[in-house]
Write a structure and sequence with these properties.
This protein is of the alpha+beta class and about 300 residues long. The protein folds into 3 domains: about 20-165, Glutaredoxin (3-Layer(aba) Sandwich), CATH 3.40.30.10; about 170-230, Immunoglobulin-like; about 235-295, Sandwich (Immunoglobulin-like). It has helices at about 1-20, 65-80, 95-105, 125-130, 155-165, and strands at about 35-40, 45, 55-60, 85-90, 115, 135-140, 145-150, 170, 175, 180-190, 195-205, 215-220, 220-230, 240, 240-245, 245-260, 265-275, 280-285, 290-295. Strands 8, 9, 10, 11, 12 and 13 form a 6-stranded mixed β-sheet that branches. Strand 4 (about 85-90), helix 3 (about 95-105) and strand 5 (about 115) form a beta-alpha-beta unit. Helix 2 (about 65-80) runs parallel beside helix 5. The protein is elongated, with a radius of gyration of 24 Å. The N and C termini lie far apart (about 65 Å).
């Protein structure tokens, strides 16, 4: 009798655990759960593959008419902001591969990140994100933090415009000749005693006249420190400009890599920089304070 009661208690506990500890839908301000899923070619793709991008995680299906109706608007936003660092990761709740692929082609969903396990509503990623209806979307920043959910086309466009065109950043943090802004900005450069040395409104600032030291820059309601370096006449060069896995420098040097939003994503020193972890797109590279660009294939 005691063994039967014990079995009942264990079964009840197991049921209660699965019930009360099921996945809850991630909210704005929380980290987006990482996942892996197969693309149409059977390749494993991960959300973390896009860690340096602004990502729209989009749950949809070929049979979902509201999803299909909004796709033209999503495609337009993709082309509008993709070159600035916007990417889309589509997770399909289809059960038939042919229908899934036909919808991708017909709706011209040209981004490369499409995934499905063809399990319909039992899709593992959909369960991880507690999806109960589609379309469902999550806007995720470069740090993997959710910054918006289920935004309509107007609000998504407004948010992306703010992120890419209005939220100004500067780079590099260690500079030799110039500072750059991601958009035209009012700025003021001070020494650490508060003396104003330079001010104006521009997309770049010539700082060659400043002595090598640390300075404070104020711009668009923000402030940050940067380091002015001596401008080395023997500039560091690099190759290739269209990169697969690594960048080779002409000599050992300090480097900083920024995305199109001016966010620092990698820094260090050496003669070889491994960039296989970067997603495809354009980047800024600062070598001993001098900025160039490269394209990650």
């Amino acid at each position: 009798m005691k063994s039967k009661v014990l079995k009942i208690i264990i079964l009840w506990a197991a049921f209660s655990s699965s019930f009360f500890f099921s996945f809850a839908q991630p909210k704005v301000g929380q980290k987006a759960p990482d996942f892996k899923i197969e693309d149409p070619n059977g390749k494993i793709i991960r959300l973390s593959d896009l860690s340096d991008k602004i990502v729209l995680l989009d749950f949809w299906a070929s049979w979902c008419m509201p999803c299909r109706q909004v796709n033209p608007e999503i495609v337009a936003l993709y082309h509008k902001y993709h070159d600035k660092g916007f990417e889309i990761f589509s997770v399909s709740l289809d059960t038939k591969k042919e229908a899934w692929l036909n919808a991708i082609k017909k709706d011209q969903l040209s981004w490369p990140f499409h995934g499905s396990d063809l399990k319909g509503w039992e899709n593992e990623v959909a369960e991880l994100y507690d999806i109960s209806g589609i379309p469902a979307t999550f806007l995720i920043d470069e740090k993997g933090i959710i910054i918006g959910t289920d935004l309509d086309e107007y609000d998504l466009d407004k948010k992306l415009n703010f992120l890419f065109n209005e939220q100004v950043q500067f780079y590099p943090q260690t500079a030799a000749g110039k500072l750059f802004f991601t958009a035209k900005a009012k700025y003021q450069i001070e020494d650490l005693k508060g003396n104003v040395l330079l001010k104006g409104k521009s997309e770049e600032v010539d700082i060659t006249g400043l002595a090598a030291s640390e300075y404070l820059i104020r711009y668009e309601g923000k402030s940050s420190l940067f380091l002015k370096k001596v401008n080395d006449q023997a500039l560091v060069t690099f190759y290739p400009q269209r990169v697969d896995d690594q960048i080779t420098l002409s000599k050992n040097a300090n480097f900083e890599i920024y995305n199109q939003r001016g966010k620092l994503i990698k820094k260090g020193s050496g003669e070889v920089i491994m960039v296989q972890d970067l997603s495809s797109g354009n980047y800024y590279i600062s070598l001993e304070g001098t900025v160039n660009t490269f394209f990650k294939k």
